[in-house]
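task queued by scheduler; priority normal; single chain, no ligands, no partner chains; default sampling; output format set to structure tokens
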Amino acid sequence: MTLDAVLFLVLAVWIGLSAMLVPAAKSLLHAAVGLLFALIGVGFLHFLMGAEFLGAAQLMVYVGGTMVLVVFGGMMTTKGATSESLKPVGLVVGVSAALTLFLVLVQMSLRSAERTVPQPMPNTADLGLAFLGVGSPSYLLPFEIVSVHLLVVLIGAAYLARAKRRSA
């Protein structure tokens, strides 16, 4: 087994355990920490695959931006709030949905691994033009989607903090 395969397995276990902590956590802050570790693991997975820009963007945007807003929003709006116990029906539906999604992703991964042909990396000038929207692969739309995502998270955190302050 190569070092890449060992690192991938370690990251897969780390991401899986962190992701399972999110719905199983009793407090919002613990769920946010589980999500934080899962997103960090996904960022490291991008680095392992050789997509350094995507890994850095994952760490900066999702871990740095979204998680900070979620943690601060949770700390401002809740005072020791704990989640309600999950009903058995909800547990069965959640586990079956997660298992179905997992099996679909494994099947898709196995099928795409057979067809994948490595593509040459474009040079820096082509990436710059593609980021500006010029050329075949345009990265301007994904950049704008991430910007809107952060704006929505910020507005949501501010709304939750304001609504909690009014009722207190």
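post-processing summary
- The two ends are 58 Å apart (CA to CA).
- The helical segments are 3-24, 28-49, 52-77, 88-115, 124-131, 140-167.
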